[in-house]
Amino acid sequence: MTRRLRCHAETWPIAGTFTISRGSRHEVEVVVAEISEGGHTGRGECVPYARYQESRDGVLGAIAGLKHEIAAGAGRDDLRLLLPAGAARNAIDCALWDLEAKQAGKAVWQLARLAPPAPLLTAYTISLAAPAAMAEAARRASGRPLLKIKLGGRGDEERIAAIRAACPDARLIADANESWPVERLEALLGACADAGMEIVEQPLPAGADEALAAIPRPVRVFADESVHERAGLKALAGRYDGVNIKLDKSGGLTEALALLDAAEAEGLGIMVGCMVGTSLSMAPAALLAQRADIVDLDGPLLLARDREHAIQYDGSLLNPPAPELWG
Predict the structure, then answer these.
(1) Could you report how far apart the first and last alpha carbons of the chain are, in Å?
(2) Could you give phi then psi for residue 173, rounded to 5 degrees?
(3) Distance of alpha carbon 286 from alpha carbon 267, whole angstroms
(4) Distance in angstroms (rounded) separating the CA atoms of residues 107 and 98
(5) 256 touches 30 (CB < 8 A)
(6) Would you please indicate which residues are annotated as catalytic (active-site) residues?
(7) CA-CA distance, 240 to 96, in Å (whole number)?
(8) How many CA atoms lie within 13 A of 139 on its CB side?
(9) Which residues contact 105 (CB under 8 A, 6 or more apart)?
């Protein structure tokens, strides 16, 4: 039997506006890869990200360019030689996992020798805005136990204080998306510590984060843009206390599981995050997140609608994906 690889793009509306330090969006473009063989079809979704020089058309072209290799039997272990880590490889890798599960009549967690998935508490993101607007958004979401606050540099101390005042009992984590100037690093980390933030993601630009090794860190600092796959772990020594693993960065569940093992061996904290995408993106990440200290898989909660057989959220509690969706 010959495997057939297809791919297509989809656009999904965001509920309102999603804003980080790099800009705002009202919709998200995803790319879906489908691999069919013997009456079964596996699917995987990725989110092209301009920060990593990715585009919808570029990712579609990269996936389509592997049609012959997939038809000839290339599998997940071959993908690292065929594509760099990133969105295109993620979609194909997850589609292969889904196909293998359907062909074997087993769940992906069984094939990967993982523990059965259980419900997970996910963070809920508060988009970057003026302090008062963010405080009001956080107040509306105060029933959610864990809030992720997007920060952007100037005005962040006011944002942090306003949000903590609005939600005195919520657990808070922060994501600066590389926006902090080095000269403000200690003051801003101190503001996060004063507000009881549990972690701060990627305060400094990737490649310019050596300053983190030279100062005390009163809040745990996790690498996001600074680490994609295992090869990037060595550069984190002394700079970071944990890593945010995203399938769209690592190039799929296969490498993400290996990265998780390697990061744990280095004594790093584990966060599993996502781009804004549908439940098809979250499903494989939910298996990875079973071993995470912090889970940030709220992508579908930020959309105006989700796809069929969507992951069910009970508030901020993410339930395991249905087999009709993936895996």
Answers:
(1) 21
(2) -130, 160
(3) 22
(4) 8
(5) no
(6) 150, 246
(7) 33
(8) 10
(9) none
Q: What is the pLDDT of residues 197-229, one digit of tens each?
A: 999 999 999 989 999 999 999 999 999 999 999
Backbone angles phi, psi at 242, to 5 degrees: -165, 175
Domain ranges of the chain: 4-106, 120-318
Fold topology of 4-106:
Enolase-like; domain 1 (3.30.390)
Structure tokens at 212: 């983190």
Q: Give backbone dihedrals phi and psi of 83, rounded to 5 degrees, phi first.
A: -140, 145
CATH topology for the 120-318 domain: TIM Barrel (3.20.20)
- The DSSP string of 212-262 is GGGS--SSEEEESTT-SSGGGSGGGTTT-SEEEE-HHHHTSHHHHHHHHHH
Burial of 211 (0-12, 13-18, 19+ CB in 10 A): middle
pTM above 0.85, yes or no: yes
* pLDDT digits 0-9 by tens, 101-149: 999 999 999 999 999 999 999 999 999 999 999 999 999 998 999 999 9
